[in-house]
Predict the 3D structure of the following.
Amino acid sequence: MKKHHFYLCLIALLVACNGGVKEEGGDGYKTRLTFGPGEEARIVEAMLSLTDSSSITLKEGTYQFDNLSIAQVKHILIQGAGPKKTILDFSAQSQGGEGIRVTDVKGFTIDGMTLRDSKGDLIKINKSEKVVVTNLHAIWQVADSTSGGYAIYPVLCKNVLIENCYAEGASDAGIYVGQSDSAIIRKCRAYKNVAGCEIENTSHAEVYDNEFYGNTSGFLVFDLPDLSQRGGYVKAYNNYMHDNNERNFAKAGSFGNTWGVGNAAPGSGIIILAASDVELYNNRIINNNSAAIAVVSGFFIDESAGEKMNDKYFPIPRNIHIHDNVMEMGNAFPEPVYAHHIGKVLVGLDQQLKAQDPARKDMRLPFILYDGITTNILTKGTAVNPDSLCIRQQGTNLFVNIDALNIRSKNWRPSTDMTPFTCK
């Protein structure tokens, strides 16, 4: 009995000294590992050697990492003690990769921690399925062009849930879902990013009960060329998008006549670019002081967009339904708009509307901007609303058709007549 007791004590001592505590779990995870601050090297090794159905618990405290990687496993949980308690700091990262990179994982959950200050994206989840990101804060403490592009970044994924998260300081998008199928973003907040949230070339996405504020632009739905799939069937509802009026600090490559988020004008609530089958409803879109909602085609930022058309990209937005939103706007453009290339277009549009109609001298730009570029330019048709833009909103000063095709000509006549676009 004494010998048996000695062996039990020895095993307990070895486990206690081994850092990660490995045990069988009763919650579907066959292996559970627990670590604390100071065990970073063991954590890196554990993530690289994970087997299917494993969980890693990170105790309260601050951890210093260069980067972390998880690949080609199933049913994985990374669990912290809460965003204010478990903090993963990547500020000493030696190169511009992701803080956490997850690749080809079927069943991945990360819950209850803060990621901060990586050189590249804070967490990139690539080619994975059944992804859950919950109770996660992803933050750059200094928000400028040196920040990484994306804070929370699932791409080429299926069945994504992002909930109860917070993103701050991204030089592209705080919460971004790209080239994915079936995504839900709910009960999240995004602050002080270039774009609060972006759905790009993603199909069947729902974005609801979120708050996007203090960004350059609150919410983007983009379809871009030369990617693996088209997006569509995106719904955004019950969101509060307000005070998105900040300077666009996207990296230089995102500006100009390219397809990046650098094209988002300061003061934009929602921008739909070349995306189809989008419904916006029951949102509060408040004090985004350039445009509440903009619906534009790929031609608006790239005259050669038609050359990029194929079965995965169509540059003209179709089947856009905007209804029952509350929209308000401040008294003036935000100051950063005057230095931004698309911002200058909006200021010029405002001046043109007032020149056409002196009664508008004390009015702001209408809430909904539509570039007016339709499939007629491809079909040589003459239909007034061939792409089914459908608006059902109460109030005045709701809409302007920018007449973007004529913006450089003497015949430029933007129109505030919403009649052809009122839902029948």
